[in-house]
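Quick one - inputs below.
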Amino acid sequence: MAVRTDYLEEFRLFKGTAGKTWFGLLLAILLIIPATVESYLVFLAALAATHIIIAVGLNLLTGYAGQISLGHAGFIAIGAYTSSLLMLKLNAPFALALPAAGLVAGLFGLVLGFPALRLTGPYLAVATLGFGIAVAQVLVKWEALSGGSIGLHPPKPAFGLLSIDSDTRFYFLSIITMLVMTIGAANLVRSKIGRAFVAIRDSEIAAQAMGVNVPLYKTMAFAISALYAGIGGALMGHLVGYINPDSFGVAASIYFLSMIVIGGLASILGSIVGSIFLTALTHLLSGIKSLPMVIYGGLLILVVIFEPHGLWGRWRRIRLYWRSWPF
Amino acid sequence: MPLQLVIGGLATGSLYALIALGLVIIYRVSHVLNFAQGEMAMVSAFLAFTFLGVFRIPFVWACLLAIGTSFLLGAIIEAAFLRPAKKSDVLGLVVITLGVQQILYGMAGWIWGYDTKLFPSPVSDTTHYRFGAAIVSQANLWILGVSVALMLLLLLFFRYTRTGIALRAVPQNPTAARLMGIRASRAFSLTWGIASVLGAVAGILIAPITFLDPNMMLNPLLKAFAAATLGGMSSFAGAVVGGGSLGILENLVGAYLAPELKDSVAFVVIVLVLCVRPSGILGRHYERRV
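Output:
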């Protein structure tokens, strides 16, 4: 590891000059992407940004707080539909619809968090699976609200006179939201709340004995990750321009779970890496019908068996190896 | 009319019970919820379809062959995917089964395609028999008969054969079982094979009703989870009771409340059971060690 001269250095968001330089480089790259690559890749980058938001939220819940959630697509759907319905039916401005989508999804996360307090492991997995499927079914059946299987066409967002209708503009909207939310999550992780999450994951009983308010932080974990999923889902809906209940089924939940498992559980950068990797993989394999699923499944199994810390964990081990070479 | 609903519900419920039994058997032995159970059943049904259609084997032999292959499939999945993951936590095991599910789904879609196919059934849906006040279709009778026969066979196997008793001993106390000469790895493979066979039979029975396509087992799998949750994840009898109850409940809700609510019954059951009594009707709640 890098030599630290200051205890607080360990807790800083960007560690030392190296950290700040890398982040500055990242910002520079993100800025020049729309100018240099073709339009479809810019769209893909914007989509990846929305996926990153969702994956970071899911990682907060599953990686840091240790709660299995197989129904996260339900929250994504709630966010997407809330935002679209607010803009379509109530003519709400986008600046209002987006946070509202997050808040409504977060509320549902809170609601799901209460029964989840009593459940662990496989029971929680089944309960969240049921929740995800229930949301999809309600969206199909409640046609007056959601348009049923036909779906909705979310309008293009607009901030007053500035209408987000091109790929480049949407790219910047997604990237800015993604940066804000990811830095927020990174700050959350290094705060008291993040430590409470990790304590609950590692040993719930010990955490409770230490004075961590387990019910509070568990429900908070569900609510926050649902908020992230809601905002990511709303952005995704507006970016793609079409949402319907089929795209928010079990397959979608497993897709996002794969992102964080393959990228790295309990790691913000891991979620980012996993999202980009899977979005790129989906894009590359979009022609062949069944190959993506087989590859995802295979990757999931390989990652769990051989590298439980995911791609980012493997990168950290490589980095550590070279840093401490030749010892 | 209610008796009819009950009998019809029992027939569907016995299908859920078969899959749930597979889930419970695997949960007791490997302590993991096998999310791939549905896809294993689906692949077996597709195999039976191929044997019937492409190789033109008569129905009974085709099904038996498919069931045998599915036994091997279950054992291979356990040996290849679950055994190397000894040190994984609950999430890791769940993710592995999800990975197996994705692989099986993709392979089925790649080999057989995603369009729906018709699966032949040896019994007809229209012939009805009269049992007093109830009219039972031949198809329902066939489903009930096969399921009950299989469950009885399983009961006899687990109770009265040495292998069956050995399979029950391994999850109770693996060390003692090993000391008694039971090879644990073989027990695991055998268990997964049996669970796969249960799923295969359920798949072959479901396929004529829901038509054959890679998505066909997603809904029944969720219902089986509800049945296993209702009856208790660690209880064989619970799976049977839970399956039957769920089937009857679905039919009653569909007839007396609204047909659209039938699918939601499973979810409501899951939520209610997990809120009120997480260990299910017949399950035993084990205390957690710190």
